[in-house]
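Input set for joint prediction.
Command: fold jointly, output C-alpha cells.
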Amino acid sequence: MSNIRIGLVGLGRLGMTHATNIAKNIPEMDLVAICSLNQDELTTAQALLDVKETYLDYQDMLASPNLDAIVIVSPSGFHCQQIQLALEAGLHVFCEKPIGLSLAEIDQTLAVINTHPHQKFMLGFMRRFDDSYQYAKQLVDAGELGELTVIRCYGIDPSSGMESFVKFAANSNSGGIFADMAIHDIDLIRWFSQQEINRVWALGKNAAYPELDQVNELETGTAMMQLSDHSMALLVTGRNAAHGYHVETELIGTKGMLRIGAAPEKNLVTLYNEQGVVRPTSQNFPERFGQAFLTEMKAFATSIIEDLPTPISGVDGLQATKIAAACQQSFETNEIVEID
Amino acid sequence: MSNIRIGLVGLGRLGMTHATNIAKNIPEMDLVAICSLNQDELTTAQALLDVKETYLDYQDMLASPNLDAIVIVSPSGFHCQQIQLALEAGLHVFCEKPIGLSLAEIDQTLAVINTHPHQKFMLGFMRRFDDSYQYAKQLVDAGELGELTVIRCYGIDPSSGMESFVKFAANSNSGGIFADMAIHDIDLIRWFSQQEINRVWALGKNAAYPELDQVNELETGTAMMQLSDHSMALLVTGRNAAHGYHVETELIGTKGMLRIGAAPEKNLVTLYNEQGVVRPTSQNFPERFGQAFLTEMKAFATSIIEDLPTPISGVDGLQATKIAAACQQSFETNEIVEID
Amino acid sequence: MSNIRIGLVGLGRLGMTHATNIAKNIPEMDLVAICSLNQDELTTAQALLDVKETYLDYQDMLASPNLDAIVIVSPSGFHCQQIQLALEAGLHVFCEKPIGLSLAEIDQTLAVINTHPHQKFMLGFMRRFDDSYQYAKQLVDAGELGELTVIRCYGIDPSSGMESFVKFAANSNSGGIFADMAIHDIDLIRWFSQQEINRVWALGKNAAYPELDQVNELETGTAMMQLSDHSMALLVTGRNAAHGYHVETELIGTKGMLRIGAAPEKNLVTLYNEQGVVRPTSQNFPERFGQAFLTEMKAFATSIIEDLPTPISGVDGLQATKIAAACQQSFETNEIVEID
Amino acid sequence: MSNIRIGLVGLGRLGMTHATNIAKNIPEMDLVAICSLNQDELTTAQALLDVKETYLDYQDMLASPNLDAIVIVSPSGFHCQQIQLALEAGLHVFCEKPIGLSLAEIDQTLAVINTHPHQKFMLGFMRRFDDSYQYAKQLVDAGELGELTVIRCYGIDPSSGMESFVKFAANSNSGGIFADMAIHDIDLIRWFSQQEINRVWALGKNAAYPELDQVNELETGTAMMQLSDHSMALLVTGRNAAHGYHVETELIGTKGMLRIGAAPEKNLVTLYNEQGVVRPTSQNFPERFGQAFLTEMKAFATSIIEDLPTPISGVDGLQATKIAAACQQSFETNEIVEID
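C-alpha cells >
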C-alpha cells in the first residue's frame, strides 16, 4: 500500500506538533497539504516541513485530488463542520478534541460519521497513548489493582500561561475550564473504569486572578463524580501550577493503587542544590506528551492501513463533552447534576 | 512546680502509647493512676510502666487525691461523661477524638467545659503536632503557597486490618467511616484553611467486602467540600490500603503546592530489588505518628504549666464531628448537605 | 540531497535496534543492505524491515554500488578490520563501541581513519545522546554545578542475564568487565569532565558466581580514578542488579550536584502495593536508551548531510579503551596503574 | 536501681545535644555535673537544664562524690587523658569519637580500658543507632541483600559551614578530613560488612577553596578500599554540599541493594514550586541524627543498668582511626596504603 496522504488544518502549537510527526516521523504518512487562515503560518510550515500544497481555505484543500485523510487541529468551533465536509469528500478524519462545542452539534456530527462507516474517524485524546498511561492500563486490565474504587485526575497548566489566558478570556470564551481542559481527565476516567459517569458536583475558585469571575472563567476547579458501578472520581483542573504542566492520574483499587505523573518528572535527572533535592518538571504538553502524540497518529495510520476500528470513537467524544457540560452546569448552579 | 500527676483511662493500643509517653518520655508528667475495665490490661501496664494506682472503675480513679489531670483514651461512647466527671472533680482533661458520638451530647459537654474555665481541656488531633504537618503549616502561614484553593486529604488504614474490621462491624457501630476516620482530615482542613466548611457531598463504595453494605459501613469513601471562602476540599477515607497506613495531605495554593506523606516513607531507606525501586512505608498510626503523640502530650503539659489556652479546643471537636455527620448524611442520601 | 543509503553488519539485539531505526524512524536514511553470518537473522530482518540486499559476507556487501555508509554492530573482534575495509571502499562508517580489542589495532585503525578525512567516522557511545544526559551536560557546561570535583558512574546489568553470561564466559572472552561494560562510563567521565584520566585502581569480587574467578571475569568491579585536574571518579560496574538495568551517573560540583538515573524509572508510574511505594525500573538497554540510539544515529546522518565533524571520534574510542585496559591491569595486579 | 548520675564535659553544639538528652529525655539518667573551660557555656547550660554542679576543671568534676559515669564531648585532643582519668576515678565512660588523635595514644588508652573491665566504655558512633541504619542492618543481617559486594558511603557537610571552616583551618588542625569526618563512614563499613579494611587509596581536591591546599585540608576527598573478603568500599567525604547535610550509605549485595539517606529528606513534605518537585533536606547533624543521639545514650544507660557489653568498643574506635590515618597517608603520598 502506498503512504497515507494527509491534509492538515490548523497550524498552532499543537497543529505543528501533528504536522511535524506526519511529515518527519511516520513513514506511512505523507503531509501533502496544510491549511490555515494565516499565510505566515503556511509559509513557515511549508518551508520547515517541505509540504507541496498550502491552502487559506479549507474547502479548497478538500478539493485537492491528492488526499486520503484530513487531520483537524483548528479551533474547536470549526470542528463539526470540518469533520462533516471531510467525510462528505470521502476522506478519513482525525480530529483533535472536542468534536464540537455543543451537544446538539456533536449529536449531528455523530450521525454524519455513522453514515460514512467505511471512512475512519478518530478523536484525539492523546493521553491514552502515553507509555505511562498504557503501562497503567495494562496493570488495571490485568487485575493488578483489584477492582477500582477511586480515580483521581489532575490537569493543571503552568502558571506561565496565566497572564495570556486572562487576556484571552477578556474577549473570548474557552468553553469553560471543564470542557476546555478537564475533558481529557473525563476521558481517562471512562477509559480506565469502563464505566459511565452518573452524577457530578463541581466547584471553582478564582484566587490569584479574581477578574476571571467577571468572564465566568476559572483558575481552579474541582469535581466529584459518581460512576455507574458506584466508583468515585475526583478531579482537579487548573491553569496555575507554579512547577509546570501537572497531569496526574491516580487509580485506587482493592488490591493496590498507582499514580501516573505524580511528580511529573522532566527526565531522569535529580538535582541537589540550595533548594533541596529537586526533580525538574515538564513545562508544557508537547514536552510531556510528545511520545503520545506520535503514537496516537501512528494508531490512526494503522486503523486506515489495516482497516480496523479507530481506538477513540465519536461516542467517546460525545460522552466526554456531555460530562464536561454537566460539570460546568453544576459549577454554575452549585448543585449536583445527573447525567442521563 | 512539681510534676503533673496523670490518671489515664483506656489501655488499648493508643492508650498504651499515651501511657508510655507520660510514664517514660515526659519528665514534667507522672503516670500516677490507670483505669481499665480489663484487669489484665491493668496488670500488664502497671508492671511495664511502674504505675502506683490501678482502677477498674473510672469514678474510683477520680476520687484519688493524687491527680492533677485525666487523659481519656477510652471508647468514644464514654468520652462525654468522662470529661464531665473529670472536670467536676476539678481536674484538667485531655481527651482523644471525638468529644462524643452525637452533636447533642457534644454541645452539652462544651457547656460543661465552659463552666470550668480555669481547668484545661484539650482534644487529641495529633496530626497537627507531627513535624511534617508543623513544617507545612509554617509554610502556609508564611504565605509560601499563596492563597489556598484546594486541600486534598487521604486517610487510609492498612488492609491488614480489614478482616478484623469486618468482624467488628458485624456487631458494632464504628459511627461510620467519616466520624471514625475522616474526622482527622476534617480537622486538618479547618486548621490549614482557617475556614469553615459549608457544603459537602460524600460517596462510598464497598468492593472487596460487599458485606459491609449490610451494616452501613464503608471500605472506601470520598467527599468534596466547599469552604466558606470558596476553597475546595477533597477527601478520601478508607480501610484497605495494600501498602500500609496512608495519611496524605495536599495543599494547593496560588503560588505553589505541597504534599505531606505522599509516599508515606517508613524511614530514609530505599530498596532496589526485584520489585523495582521501593520505599518501605509506615504500617500503622503509632509508627507514623509516634513523634506527634509525644509532642501533643507535651503541649498539654505546657498548657497546664504555663496556664495557656490548649492548642485544640472543644469547638474544634464539635465542628469536626458536625462535618463528619454531614458527610455521613450526604452519603446516605446521596445529596449535598449544607452545614449551618 | 537524496537519502543516505546504509549497509549494516550484525543483527543481534543492538543490531536490530539500529536497523529498525534506520529503516523506520530516520527519514534521511535508507536501510539498503544487511549482513550477518546467520541466514535466519538475515531472513527475519529482511522481512521485518523490507531490506533489498542481504549478505552473508561483509566484503560482498561493501562491493554493492548502492551504499553511502556502513553501520557496524558486529562482535567487537571484527570492528577494526570492518572499519578499515569500509573506509577503503569509500564509505562513511558508524561503529559500535569499542573500536577494537587491543590498543595496537585501535592505533592502526585510527591511522586509517586519519587517511580518509573526507569520510565520516563515528563511534557509538549512545549515552551521550540520551535526553537526561544531554540535560545534565547543559547544566554542567552552563556552570550550574560550579567546578566538578567528583564523578560517580554505575553501570550494572540486570541479574536476569547472569546465567547466560556465566555460560558465555566459560568459553569466550568478554574482554573483561571494564572493557566490555565500564567503557561507557569511562567515556562519560571524559565527556562531562573534559579531562583525561591519569591514575586508576580497580577491584573486583565474585560472590554469587565464584566460578567466574576461574575465567578471569567479574560479576562486580569498582574503580577509583584521578583526573588531570585532580578531580576524582568512582565507578561501579556489574552484571547482577536484581532491580533491572542500572545506569547511573552522579556529578558533584562546588555549587551543587546531580544524579542521572538514580532510580532508574521505567516511566512515570508509581505503584503503591504490598511492597511499599514502588517505581518500576528499566530492564535493559533498548528500553532505557531507545531514544538515545535514535538520536545518535540521527546525529551521524546530520554529520554526513551537513559535512560536519561527528560528535564522537576515534580518539574518544582509543582513550576509553586505554583506560578500560588500565582498569583491567590494575584489577589483575591490585596496584595503581598510570595512564600516560 | 537508682538513676545513673552523669558528669558531662564539653558544651559545644554536640555537647548540648547530649546534655539535653541526659537531662530531659532519658529518665534513667540524671545530669548532675557539667564541665567546660567556658564559664558562659556553664551558666547557660545550668540554667537551661537545671544542673546542680558546674566545673571549669575536669579533675575537679571527677572528684565529685555524686557521679556514676562521665560523658566526654570535649575537643578530640583531650579525649585520651579524660578517658583515662575517669576510669581511674572508677567511673563509666561514654566518649565521642575519636578516642584520640594518634594511634599511639589510642593504643595506650585501650590498655587502660582493658585494666578496668568492670567499668563500661562506649564510643559515640551515633549513626549505628539511627532508625534507618538499624532497619538496613536488620535487612543485611537477615540476608535480604545476599552477600555484600560494594559499600558506598557519603558524608558531606553543608556548604553553609565552609567559610567558618576555612577560617578555623588557617590556625587549627582538624586532623584531616578522613579522621575528622570520614571516620563515621569507616565505622559503618566495618559494621555493615563485619570485615576489616586491608588496602586504601585516597584522593582529594580543593576547588572552591584552593587556599585549603596551603593548610593540608580538604574540601572534598574520596577513597576506595579493599576489604578482607574482597568486598569493595567507596567513600566520598566533603564539606561543601549546597543542599544540606548529606550522609548517605549504599549497600550492594548479590540479591539487591539499598540506600540510606539518598535524598536526605528533612521530613515527609514534598514541595511543588518554581524549582520543580522539591524534597527539603536536613541541614545539620542534630537535625538528621537527633533520634540516633538519644537512642545511643539510652544504649549506654542500658549497658550500665543491665551490666552488658557496650555496643561500640574501644577497638571499634582504634580500627576506625587506623583506617582514617591510612586514608590520610594515602592522600598525601598518592599511593595505596596497606593496613596490617
